[in-house]
Amino acid sequence: MKTRLLAFPMRRAAAAVVIAMVAGISACGGGADVVVVAPPPPPSPIIAHLDIALTRVGPEAVQVDWSDDPEAASFVVRRNGLTLAQVDAISLIDASVQFDGYYCYDVAGYDSVGELVSVSDTACITIF
User: Fold this and answer.
1) What is the mean pLDDT for each group of 10 consecutive residues in the chain (128 residues)?
2) Domain boundaries, the chain
3) The whole model's pTM is what?
4) Which residues are CB-neighbours of 127 under 8 A, at least 6 positions away?
């Protein structure tokens, strides 16, 4: 009985390569271990922690303060998961909040080449 390969041409080519490799290993005495050495992954950068504090500073304004990170050239402030601002200071007044609103903020610091170097926890406030 003849078996017919019903696959895309690329699969046939890949199968032929695998068969040729297996045949080549068998022809070379087979059974030899093949060791592939890959370089280790680069070390993960150390991400510093930023302290964050929220203060209501007006009927519809929140001041967001965070600790400084000397490695950070700029900070991205997010409100409710969306970018609110990118600043090079360690404080921001959000004057776009509304009465009876619930807002959560977090801050991330980036170095001069745009690499993440520090993050805060998420802090939340209700305006009432």
Assistant:
1) 46 46 51 82 90 97 98 98 98 97 99 98 97
2) 48-126
3) 0.68
4) 56, 60, 62, 97, 98, 99, 100, 101, 102, 103
3-state secondary structure (DSSP) of residue 57: strand
- The Cα–Cα gap between 56 and 97 comes to 10
Q: Does domain 48-126 have CATH number 2.60.40.10?
A: yes
Task: Specify whether the CB–CB gap between 127 and 100 falls below 8 A.
Answer: yes
- Residue ranges of alpha helices (H) inside the chain are 9-27
The span from the CA of 71 to the CA of 3, in Å, is 64
CA distances from 29 to 16, 36, 53, 55, 74 (A): 20, 19, 69, 74, 61
- The residue length of the chain stands at 128
